[in-house]
Every structure is written in structure tokens, then in C-alpha cells.
Amino acid sequence: MAAIETNRAAAAALKAEVRRTKAKLLGEVPKLIKLAQKKVKGLSSEELEARKELVAVLPERIQSIPDGSSSSSSSDKITSSSSNKKIKFESSVNFDFDYFENSEESSQFQQEYEMRRLKQDQGLDEISQGLDILKNLAKDMDEEMDRQIPLLDEIDIKADKASSNLRKNNARLKETITKVRHNMYLILRVFIRLIE
């Protein structure tokens, strides 16, 4: 009895996965329609039309995949395209309740899948923690930058003032040196005249 319930639960989970996959596939159909309409170098117009037809019937074929919901019936069959006989879809697989029955191999696979998923979740948790640490570090750096920007602005203003004062002092010093040279020259001339 428990095995039957486990099988039913597994079958329900697989059917739900089929429904999710169908929804994903149906979400990708608009992209395929756009791609099918693009002209490709070396592709004949007949092949282009065949591509368009295949993509046009794709949503109907995806919907015809049995997924255990009441809207899809198990008697739906997937057939090959009428325009392109080379492409065939397998319709002989019968997806009834027995198809999803649990076996030793499937149980082992499911356990391995769960272990890998848990390991992946642990890895993602570690990555999440690392990202949280990086986020906090970035926040701290941002706050520190906000704190230091006014200090840097003040340093910049003071450096400009010091540079301006240095230029003024250099100009005064140059003027003083010019005066001293001129006075030295005069003193030397006077001294030379006195010696003569």
C-alpha cells in the first residue's frame, strides 16, 4: 500500500515536472517563431517555409504531450509534419501510470539527485553568505568614502591655498633677490671707486 502511494506521489511529481517543462517550451515558442522567419544563407525558400510550418504546429504538439491534467487526453498522438516527411516524431510511447512506476534504479537516481541538489544548495548558501559579506564590505567602503570625501575636499582647498601662497612668496623672493643684486652691484661700484 505504501509503495503504491509512493509510486503515485512520484508519478504526480513527474507529471508536474512535465507540465512545467511544457510551460517552459510554450514560453520559448515566440522566440522560435522569430528565428524561423529569419532568412539564413544557403537555405532555400522551401526549407524556410518548412521551418515556419514546423514552428507553427509546435505549440499544438507541445500541448498534446500527456501530462496527467484533465485538459490533455492520453489518446492524443503526435504525428509527423505534412509538409516535411523527413521529420518524424515518436508516437509509440505510452505515458500511462505504469510508465512512471518506481524501480530500484529510479529510487537510486532520485536519491542521488536529492544528494546533489542538497550539495548544490549548500554551495549556493555559501555563495550567498560570501555575497552578503561582500555587500557589507561595499556598504562600509561607501560609508567610509562618504566620510572621507569632505576631508579630501578640505585637503584640496588647503593645497590650492598653499600653492597660491607659494607662488606669491616665490614672486616676492625673486623681487627681493633682484633688489639685493642691484644693491650689491651698487655697493661694489662704490667700493671699487673708493679703492681707486
The fraction of residues in strands falls at under 5%
* Terminal-residue CA separation: 138 Å
Mean pLDDT rating:
80
Structural Rg: 42 Å
DSSP helix count?
3
Class by SSE composition: mainly alpha
Q: Regions with pLDDT < 50 over 5+ consecutive residues? A: 72-83
Order of helices and strands: HHH
Instruction: Count the beta strands.
Output: 0
**Percent in helix:** over 70%
Could you describe the largest sheet, including whether it forms a barrel?
none
Looking at the structure, what is the overall shape? elongated
Structure, explained:
There is one protein chain. The chain is mostly helical. It is built from three helices and no strands. It has helices at 2-37, 45-63, 104-195. α1 (2-37) runs antiparallel to α2. The model is unreliable at 72-83 (pLDDT under 50).
SSE topology sketch:
Elements: H1 2-37, H2 45-63, H3 104-195
In short:
The protein has 196 residues and is mostly helical.
Describe the structure using short key phrases:
3 helices; single chain; elongated; 196 residues; mainly alpha
